[in-house]
Design goal:
By secondary structure, the protein is an alpha+beta fold. The chain folds into 2 domains: 2-46 and 108-217, no CATH class; 228-368, Immunoglobulins (Immunoglobulin-like), CATH 2.60.40. It has helices spanning 2-17, 34-41, 54-61, 64-69, 75-78, 85-89, 110-113, 158-162, 167-170, 195-199, 354-357; strands at 116-120, 127-130, 136-138, 151-153, 172-174, 180-183, 202-204, 215-217, 235-241, 246-252, 265-274, 277-280, 284-292, 295-296, 304-308, 316-321, 330-338, 360-368. The strands form 6 sheets. Strands 11, 12, 13, 14, 15, 17 and 18 form a 7-stranded antiparallel beta sheet that branches.
Length: 369
Amino acid sequence: MKKLYLLLLMSASIIANDAVHSYASSEECKACHTQIYDEFYSSMHANSTPDKDPIHNAIWQKHPQNIKQNRYGCGKCHTPAADNLDKMKTPGQIAMPDINNKTHQEGISCAYCHRIKSIELHKKHNTNIMTNTPKNYFGTLEDGIESPYHEISVDGNEHMKNGNVCIGCHSHKQNKHGLNVCSTNIDNEMDGANCVSCHMPKIEGSVSGLRDTKVHSFHGFPGSHANSEMLTEYVDLSIVRNIDNFIVNVDNRTSHALLLHPLRVAVLKVKVIRENKITQMKNEIFVRVIGKNGKPAMPWAADKTLKDTMIQANEKRSVEYDFKIQKGDTVDVTLGWFLVNPKVVKKLGLENEKIATQFTEFKKQSFAF
């Protein structure tokens, strides 16, 4: 009976983890999909591993799975093409990121994304269910694409068509305390919002050397790390001038918070230029702080949100400045962010990493009066 129980437990684990699959290397895609490969190669999907992303690595170095368990549970979303992903996700197994393992360095590979057949919705985090046919990829071209290397299936995969292919990893992540650490859609509802339409916009260039098209979906995945200028159309800045003060409005017209990860901090910078004099207003900070016992804590230890001033989905945030604008004044407004909260940069050992310390100017606009 005990043996049967263990066998059933192991079987359940395999089903829940969707087993391990073999994926073609992204390098194999380069010959035909040259432009797409170049976009992908510089994206965070290609650079999601601890060896390529210094911010992720800094967190991983402090993670209990690294220090105590010797397994890389983050691999579920950060190295999903790993040939030992099942061990990475299974408590009691030893499976660490390996810089010499090519499947680990694939990151979130081309073949991995294009073989997502369906998505299982779960309370703690979702699971991607993969096709078992190595050369059967899913795409969005209405009539498919003929290739001597693989097939493209466009029928029967609603997730590719409606953009929800991303929610297997990007929907939510709940820790052992029941806290949603990082959430795109906190209620886990597929409300029809299309991740792909915003984060994979159509740009000029052919899909493939075998199939000439005028446009293709951008595979650089614009977000807070890179290519963020492609998302500026979804956030509007405006000013209301009053008699004794003025108000800056930030209108977030997306279906999720402006920034999702609690490590990040958004900043609104405003200055008034009067003749040759510049008056710098106090920076407005937008942040979500998670913690435990009233103090900030790492994602795996936090059990509540201590502070949340982040601009939320479809929210128009107004910030008032006690300053009287005169005729001839110019007001410069800059909205941007730090990928790592400046308060924890040193604690994470990232003070010498440009990506962790630089301020990204997302949208900048001048208003003349």
